[in-house]
Amino acid sequence: MSTLSPKIDFLRQADVVGRLSAILPDDALLYRSEDTRPYECDGLSAYRQLPMVVALPRDEAEVQAVLKVCHELRVPVVARGAGTGLSGGALPMGDGVLLSLARMKRILSLDPLSRTARVQPGVRNAAISEAAAAYGLYYAPDPSSQIACTIGGNVAENSGGVHCLKYGLTVNNVLRVRGFTAEGEAVEFGSEALDGAGLDLLAIVIGSEGMLAVTTEVTVKLTPVPEIARCVMASFDDVEKAGNAVASVIAAGIIPAGLEMMDKPATQAVEQFVHAGYDLDAAAILLCESDGTPAEVEEEVGRMRAVLEAAGATAIRVSNSEAERMKFWAGRKAAFPAVGRISPDYYCMDGTIPRKRLGEILRFIAAMEIKYGLRCPNVFHAGDGNLHPLILFDANIPDELERTEAFAAEVLEKCIAVGGTITGEHGVGIEKINQMCVQFSPEELALFRELKLAFDPDGRLNPSKNIPTLHRCAEYGRMHVKGGVLPYADLPRF
Amino acid sequence: MSHLEQQFAETVRDAVSARRTLRIRGSGSKDFYGQPWAQDAAVLDAGSHHGVVDYEPTELVVTVRGGTPLAELEALLHDNGQMLAFEPPHFGPATTVGGMVAAGLSGPRRATAGAVRDYVLGARLLDGRGAALSFGGRVMKNVAGYDVSRALAGSLGTLGLILEVSLKTQPRPVAEATLRFEFPEARAIEELNRWGGKPLPLSGSAWADGELFVRLSGAQAAVLSASEKMGGEKMNDGEARVLWQSLREQTHEFFAVAAKDGLPLWRMSVPSIAPIDVLHSAMAGNTLLEWGGALRWFASASAPARVREAAHKAGGHATLFRGTDDLRQSIGAFHPLQPAIAAIHRKLKTAFDPHGVFNPGRLYPEI
Hints:
- The complex is a heterodimer.
- Chain A is an alpha+beta fold.
- Helices cover 36% and strands 18% of the residues of chain A.
- The longest helix of chain A has 18 residues, at 400-417.
- Chain A is globular.
- Chain B folds into 3 domains: 3-171 and 342-352, Uridine Diphospho-n-acetylenolpyruvylglucosamine Reductase, domain 3 (2-Layer Sandwich); 175-248, Alpha-Beta Plaits (2-Layer Sandwich); 253-331, 2-Layer Sandwich (Alpha-Beta Plaits).
- In chain B, 34% of the residues lie in helices and 24% in strands.
- At the A-B interface, strand 9, helix 8, helix 9, helix 11 and helix 17 of A face strand 7, helix 6, strand 9, helix 7 and helix 8 of B.
């Protein structure tokens, strides 16, 4: 599973290094395996591949020069930020250049009056909010990895976070992306204004997993920090009741700043780790946040409390200080590392479903736990319908990873079956590429490929990720069949 | 595919084989917008394909067919305490949801709530080969595949016929208030940007002829405390509603006078802090400002090249929003594209519509 591209061809490597060394300083070019090892995987460590060369440009001119050389030599390029991605989107290629943007980490400008910041791609998500804090502003999307992940990576993945129901995803908070095509031509998507001329290419580029262009500069919108925020924590004796409570909150016309759910196995794992004071007897807990002016928050918390009580909450606590609110959230934000402490390995899923199908999905996951003999705690961006079931396994036990992947594949396909999607925020990358064959028809996949070629005619940026070939789908055996007729029936299927 | 969808697909395939082009039209409410229609294109009546496919208020998602009247959708959402947060203009009684997405225009709430594209979650599209393709979905978060459905907003039908669209809905605010201030233009822009950086429940702004109007929406307590902080004079609710409606539908006096005088109407999308002298030096005539300073309307007969240059200098772009067919044809309704971006546009057009069947030349002459 770990080898996706050929072994490194040392003659080819010498050739590429020779050409790149003319444009990059020595310390910006890595090719010995002891130096390239740290780049062999991203946050999805089940997939590993040493890159042929790692390039670490410091500015746009160097990025452009590297791309031009790669174009000339026909070398594929995989861009990488902090490498925190969870779907293998930054998995290198053995015959390619891994283009790390980590050294481009300057905030170029921050204008409190227009509430925008112009930043380089290697700037960490949280660093933008830290810089903006002095002006009472912040960058709203807050993926759990925000202390490490970069804005360039956020653009590639269209990252969300626990507050995106109210404040939106990356696509809703970025005005402009500057970068280069695979051929090394400078391009700008969007503008410093609220919209740009022509087709909304910015919307396509955000979330394109580094397959359309290399991002070298991002203009983000900054949001005023709410005066206060308070978090309501509600316990439920039944997971479906908790799911229905989420619908009741929305039905009452409330859009919480955050709305998260954890099931009992998840709260138990987390509680040992952070001591957040979670109700360990509850089958599920909901975290429901309100932000705004003090009077507004008081009004809203009152309404939330009434709705949650009516929905059958067995206990309700409201944070009374910022410290207590952070403690409520600490458990949720630490869910992944907490699970990492109770199991040698875990596998995180990212399906999104219509919220009303939550009960059905949770019952399905429980059945899969029995079928595959593996445990699976659930954390859930309940407001967005985005599930993160975490399958616990031990990679040292023969066939546990295989069972885990089969478990995950079944759950993702179930997400599609109930009208959802295989990935809400982690991306397809290499991990979910087979499920793309289930979610999309061959015609849709063909269009995606043509779309890629409109930006990258030679298919050189992050190839073999995200969009499967029909050949691959045929091998996977889950070709999307519409109306009982296999499209392109005359196509060879191997 | 439904029977009607199959008929559409047949129409497309027939057009391909006869080398004809098609003009996708909902109700024709935005015929004035964009590049003039190709004379020889046959009309494809998208308005016949209407109806709500799925609406679950607690999911905050509605899915409708492209030809559904926008007024019908808004009435349905209203009955359920919800709305389309981007306040799209209708520009006509029968305007369709497909047309709303294709035009990609948003109203007064846009600066704070987001635009059409921010609320598009998914779409089914009939491409230029007559194939029905689905992108995105009916869920809040979805990063599988390229986000094609959002890019349909503002595509003016050049990529295909919108069969269905799924939109994110929003609860209607509990309370609303409009404040009126007397400020010159530069001061209005400065105040709007200053307020924009504070946690205030802003939901609309407009300045014209020395008067600045700011709308607040949200919880009762938030609207009340913001009104106190900001000052100004509180408008009567009825008058305020008329005002925001007149801005949304461009029936406001500013637009009426421009139309009466036969002046071209320019839409300048610029950074909210763009200084007024850069724009005013390029064009004579009246101004109306919206979106916290990020949208500036000019009724002006100034030379188009100067207008575009000024918009570019200010960091934005200029659309000839209303003008004669001849003028839009000769100078282009939309701001010219960077060559590399124009090349991507042409290739994208080919990917979706390889035979150039749909709305040729509507967005730019070559696509």
